[in-house]
């Protein structure tokens, strides 16, 4: 699968933080959209802070967002942090705290609300309402390969389910302090 | 126009408002706020200006319209000067009495005037001599031959003497410069090439130059005034008067220099060229004497020897100094030939107050930037660069100026009406001198370059601009312009280890 990158990805000044404030803001917006777009294309919900995305099965490097070997440019670490800070502030990204790897960042190329409605819809159509289902069933069950959320990491899925809980549409079941299942009503 | 105006001459003014001097002319003194009078009446359009006293002229440069209203008076025309001091509302004045040109010398020029020319052949060398007069029919003295210099007997040449009546109009009216032999227009009074005073021209220029505009306050009945007044509005003019008198004395001394005291050995008993012939004294050495007289003689001779050594040493030193002077002259001569015109020396000592000095410096700076640095499309130069350039190339030998003085001088441009050049601050910190639209010009040029060749760096931009535009943009200025464009948002940077490249901002809106 070849990744489609926007034209501006080949524009060298993109990798240097610009001094003009207005331009800098637009530059950060550009980075945000590049990251969201790339994650959506690759169906990646969580990526490493260094911007490197690996294929889950083969472990092959798919893309390193902050580097462009074609024009030999790369963002400095400071600028990467600035981009993340901008996205966190915009709530298009979230630092995963509970995750074992604190370098992982959840990317919301679709908002949590829209994910939660997608899952709700899926429950309704597949008749999973009022049943206890495991998170594994939602994310990795073979039945769901065609679903948009197939392959979603459990940590991200939990974020979505929490949103349903807030809407009083789900109850989380815990076993030994660990969430194992969910009942969606 | 009345003949009284013939003493006023037009003068060339540089763009900076300074007069352009002739070759060999040097300026001596400058006075501010001076008004001119012709005779007793005010010249209306010349009431506020600067007065430059130079070695050849008194130049009036008008403050309001320097190109149109400026005039000069030849120092040679001035017979006498008088000073009248300030009294109540009357400002101090210097009255210049002119030499009478119109009566003594002009009549020769009467139209149709005929001249007798006498010719004879020299019996010694055979050269045909001509003199512009009739010979005394019975006089015995014949003038010596122009070629061999032998005075001939009248009888010997009796046969060859011819008297011809010539119309003066037919004789060539060539106006040959005695210094450089350039043939000038007959009505010109100073040589166009070297500026030397032309001898013949005296009789010609009876007409007022049409380029001089003189508006008198009231119509004088005669208009034949042969004096003019310089009125000093702010100062008492005493210093100007003194220097003018000194200069006039100098001129008259120069005129008579070749007449008197030529080849004299001593003046009032003081030798003009004291050289003691050492052989004359040393030849007495070998006289044999014994006793006290010998010792005394010896002592005397020792003293004499010392004296000779000392005077030799001094004369050597003098020669050395003369040589040094020659070298200095040569150096200055070289510099002159390079710029091809005399430089007005703005000397600190000529100015009474600092303000006036700075104004003059401002004019000079303007002229310097205009002539030396300005390219086809204007120029921007940082004050730091200009300071170094100006001090190195103009101020050496006339006293360097300090950075503060330069800045103050630059701030005076507007006041002096030199509107082309402006002191601007780029990026709010770098002071530059710029011709009016040159900043916009360079900015668009830089933007164009960045669009055409994405990823240019400062070095490429500088070479590009200077090679193809034949200009002198300095790297410092270019870098400031780039920073300005980046801050403005039209350019974006790409920072690399090798340097910063610039791109036109085609993706983000400003």
UniProtKB/TrEMBL annotation, chain A:
GO terms for biological process: protein transport to vacuole involved in ubiquitin-dependent protein catabolic process via the multivesicular body sorting pathway. SUPFAM superfamilies: Winged helix' DNA-binding domain (SSF46785). This is KLLA0E05501p. Coiled coil: none annotated. PANTHER family: VACUOLAR PROTEIN SORTING-ASSOCIATED PROTEIN VPS25 (PTHR13149), VACUOLAR PROTEIN-SORTING-ASSOCIATED PROTEIN 25 (PTHR13149:SF0). One of its GO terms (cellular component) is ESCRT II complex. The keyword DNA damage does not apply. It holds the Pfam family ESCRT-II. It comes from the Eukaryota. Belongs to the VPS25 family. Keywords: Protein transport, Transport. GO terms for molecular function: protein homodimerization activity; structural molecule activity. It comes from Kluyveromyces lactis (strain ATCC 8585 / CBS 2359 / DSM 70799 / NBRC 1267 / NRRL Y-1140 / WM37) (Yeast). Gene3D superfamilies: Winged helix' DNA-binding domain. Chain C. Domain 1 (1.10.10.570), Winged helix-like DNA-binding domain superfamily/Winged helix DNA-binding domain (1.10.10.10). InterPro entries: ESCRT-II_cplx_Vps25-sub (IPR008570), ESCRT-II_cplx_Vps25-sub_N (IPR014041), WH-like_DNA-bd_sf (IPR036388), WH_DNA-bd_sf (IPR036390).
Automatic annotation (TrEMBL), chain B:
Gene3D superfamilies: Pleckstrin-homology domain (PH domain)/Phosphotyrosine-binding domain (PTB), Winged helix-like DNA-binding domain superfamily/Winged helix DNA-binding domain. Keywords: Cytoplasm, Endosome, Metal-binding, Protein transport, Transport, Zinc, Zinc-finger. One of its GO terms (cellular component) is ESCRT II complex. It is found in: Cytoplasm; Endosome. One of its GO terms (biological process) is protein transport to vacuole involved in ubiquitin-dependent protein catabolic process via the multivesicular body sorting pathway. InterPro entries: GLUE_dom, PH-like_dom_sf, Snf8/Vps36, Vps36, Vps36-NZF-N, WH-like_DNA-bd_sf, WH_DNA-bd_sf, Znf_RanBP2. Residues 11-260 form the GLUE N-terminal domain. SUPFAM superfamilies: PH domain-like (SSF50729), Ran binding protein zinc finger-like (SSF90209), Winged helix' DNA-binding domain (SSF46785). SMART domains: ZnF_RBZ. One of its GO terms (molecular function) is ubiquitin binding. Belongs to the VPS36 family. Component of the endosomal sorting complex required for transport II (ESCRT-II). Component of the ESCRT-II complex (endosomal sorting complex required for transport II), which is required for multivesicular body (MVB) formation and sorting of endosomal cargo proteins into MVBs. This is Vacuolar protein-sorting-associated protein 36. The lineage of its organism: Eukaryota, Fungi, Dikarya, Ascomycota, Saccharomycotina.
